[in-house]
Amino acid sequence: MTASDRNEQLHLGAFVIAGPGRPGGWRYPQSEDGWLDIDYYRRIAEVLERGRFDLAFFADILAVPNRYGNSHDSQLRYGALGSLRLEPLQVLAAMAGATKHLGLAATKSTSYYEPFDIARGIATLDHLSGGRAAWNIVTSFQDAEARNFSREEHIPREKRYDRADEFLEVTHKLWDSWADDALVSDRSTPLFVDPDKVTPVLHKGEWFNVDGPLNVPRPPQGYPVLIQAGASDRGREFAARWSDLIFVTHYSMESAVAFSKEMKERAARHGRNPKDLKILPGITPLVGETDAIVAEKRRVLGDLIEPVSGLTTLSYHLDVDLSVYPLDEPLPHLKVPGVTGHYDEMREASDKGGLPLAEVGRMYANRYEGDFLGTAEQIADKMQEWFEAGACDGFMVAAHWQPGAFDEFVRLVVPELQRRKLFRTDYSGGTLRDHLGLTRPAVGDWRRLQDEQKDSE
């Protein structure tokens, strides 16, 4: 199936880190160290908007991980994922002021925040950006995070998603607590807000008791775009029910095709149009003007990697202390309490390549998800292949180093995708929902969808 047969173009998100990013990448000569500088993030936003990206997506973490060897040392020493991470909503507010079209996605946990706070914060960003906000919903999974929120241990996996389901019900009730036309601002009457069009939610449940209403009007998008990355069976079911966009990583196109097919089928079982669920696998392309340039970049980046820097991050993601396993033996078969998707990806890579644990760590610190390396034409070929095979609706593009790798992708790969008519040459709407081809939900749409799904069971 060609792109023209689908009558669609692919979507592009940018996986941005409000910190040093990959352990070797921050050491790369072209990497800039403005992680605490507001202009650093504004420049990234401007680059992405110049490249007509749908959105910038900020992952987050609520602790400096200590899962590897029960110590923070490896995270801090190697600049791994939790060594430094700014609060994403504040960074996105700065990026909103530097752009007019770029979508803005913040990660917030349903395990440690409250629905009113999240509903208010994301709605505020949606208003201030003119309808460009998105929320990446995570349930969190680390005891290190729990202990930063006055808890000894984390909520068990199944309970985490029970809480998340109720959390989403409450946030939608809060966003719907204002009618779209409730804010009148009539000075002569006077009538600031029509009281008949603002309704308390009066929610009482297992996890939350929330009166409402929200003290922010209904978001411009109706509901902000919802993103989820759950890879477990319960996580996939949660994503099929609630998400507009799924972020996932795959080692191969074959696993990406299987995942996409499964998630579209799950969405249909929830009474949704499968086309309204956009799947953007993460890729970390390495692009250059020639094969020789790409090979040299790969060599330099690889030389900057210490295996432990990848293993400490993988330990965090899996919630397994990998320091207890020999570095010269394969990645063991494990029951993973953390992110099963990352384990499946590395398990596939380890099995196919016969890699010892040290090389798994090196790969994880500097991995090229899907093997997107080469010239602009070669990378565009592979993106087109995945897209036309039904593996995805687009890609979440990560950078080995910031901001230069984003600039190279925009300068080299985006024009090639545009030449093939695979990607937009300009924005055609003002909101993130417009970019993604999603309709604006009316008040109560989330509830009607749930009711229809229950009726079909």
Can you describe this structure?
- This protein has 457 residues and is α/β, with parallel strands linked by helices.
- It has a single domain (3-289, 371-456), classed as TIM Barrel (Alpha-Beta Barrel), CATH 3.20.20.30.
- It is built from 17 helices and 14 strands.
- The protein has helices at 3-6, 38-50, 73-78, 88-97, 115-128, 143-146, 157-175, 233-242, 253-269, 291-303, 307-318, 340-353, 357-365, 376-388, 404-419, 432-436, 445-456; strands spanning 11-16, 55-58, 103-109, 133-138, 183-186, 191-193, 203-204, 209-210, 225-228, 245-249, 278-283, 286-287, 373-374, 394-398.
- Strands 1-2-3-4-9-10-11-14 form an 8-stranded parallel barrel, surrounded by 5 helices. The protein has a two-stranded antiparallel sheet with strand order 5-6.
- Strand 5 and strand 6 (191-193) form a beta hairpin.
- The longest helix has 19 residues, at 157-175.
- Mean pLDDT is 91; it is low at 1-5.
